[in-house]
Amino acid sequence: MKKLILILTATTFLWSCKPTIDKKLAKQEIEVLINLKDIKDDKVMVTLTPPKITSDFIIYSLPKIVPGTYSIDNYGTFIDDLKAYDKKGNLMTVSKNDENSWTIKNAKALGKITYWVNDTFDSEKGEGFGSGDIFSPTGSNIAADENILMNTHCFIGYFSNFLDLPYKVQITHPATLWGATSMTDLDPSNTNDIFFSSKYAELVENPIMYSKPDTTTFTVDGMEILISVYSPTGKITAESISSGMKTTITAQKKFLGNINTTKKYTVLLYLSDIKKNDARGFGALEHPTSTTVVFPEVMSQEELTEQMKDVVSHEFFHIVTPLTIHSKEIQYFDYNAPKMSQHLWMYEGVTEYFANLFQINQGLITENEFYTRIAEKIEHANTLNDTMSFTTMSANVLKSPYKEQYLNVYEKGALIGMCIDIIIREKSNGERGILDLMQKLSNEYGITKPFNDNELFDKITLLTYPEVGDFLKTYVAGTTPIPYNDYLAKVGITQSKEKKPVSIFIKGQSPYINVIPQTKEIIVLPEIVLNEFFTELGLKGGDIILSINNLPYNLDNIYDLLDESEKWKENEAITIKIKRAGKEQIINGKVKLPYEDIDTFKATDPTKEKLKNAWLKG
Q: Using CA atoms in the order 604, 607, 608, 614, what is the torsion angle rounded to 10 degrees?
């Protein structure tokens, strides 16, 4: 998708002159200075002091890709004016190899390198996955004296052959800003932070967010939780979401049992101002002891709390896989020549399944809500390629036609986890499920012991049942679509339909309202069939909506209208001020919600009640 990593002449040179590392360098470290006090044009200066170099040249690189993203992002393209200086302060010759790497000759004399870092949020177009945007939670924000969201891989690179050396990172910052992270600051001053990481792979797993302090902490079963929030208007605070987060993480810890032993976990929440040139990619990125979350600030407190429950729980469960259970492709991740694992069905799919299963298991959602979620995942999976081998897609996810199917890891991937869970429950008479399997895999492998990619299915079969192995070979490695209904029938669940209220102002991807650009007024679209909400109140195509329940609405707060409408109840009194044919008028009436028949499931076989309860509550 992107340019070649190295031009031919540079590649030939590197093959013939591979740099070497001196065995005496074991106690050396790489020193990094990041200056957040003197930000210029939304750029941050980074100064990096190398270890002792014994080769004639050295390569410095920013990642092309980082773990957990599954997309080529080329973080080196956000670096400007990289310079190298010898130990006497003289400029050295630097040649750029590609988007992400630079070669420095006469490297034995290298004293330091400097460069400016641009943020990624300013470059986002908001066109979604696959558009070329860097997914916001993996990117960076630089707003002087306000907020610096620092995914460390955006600011700090690595020297060839020195990935395993320790890093000492010093960050100078205004006293008004505080850096939230799971790392320990070793400098007690309020304008200078010092962090140590044992190696580059550890450093890039520790994001930091600098902002005016808005944090809260609590402890869950021996784990310290830190929540830090940046909200441009102050609408959302760390305290306002802490109760929901505590409930969620407490339930997750109880669900996981003794699988998880993490002692500190940090949630960094950045709320984007979508009216400005700000983050557009919403979601989260997992790390072993933290997660970075980006959402739009226009969301209501209630909606944000609900989204945080789903998104943060997904990222938290990544502690199990791939952060604990993973292949050699992840353990020895190559940031600029990545080889992808076959097992996204487990890393993302089982994780997403857990993020839903624990909610019914711990009583956070009802059975009907869980069944509806399963039905939605089946519906979404059916819109993607259901005959593509999941292992083949996973191993080739960085290129077409496989990368276009990546989002299926959250749909079919979760359903794969569900089916394996049901098979294990059935064969063990409800005694064990997929969580038991993950516990066994965690004991077999672990954070520092990866598995061989092509041996995982055999290991899972050995730890479970032949039927699980057959399922993996047929439906995960194979190209046969999964008969979901057959597996759900094993626990007494069959397909059903139910009426459910849907959005008032949008049907699917098609809105009933729009905005007049010249006046910013909200208009009911003409020449379309309107739903019951509009027809019951006598609203017509071409009507201008001026206010609802005495709250004025236009382009500037249309998202508030959409959010508020989700709270309206059937037959609730409503007053709408409109302009029709140039004349204002008031419409008084009652809310009539639009309903649609949606696919879901329900328990219909009482003889499977015990097994179903073991699946959902065991």
A: 120
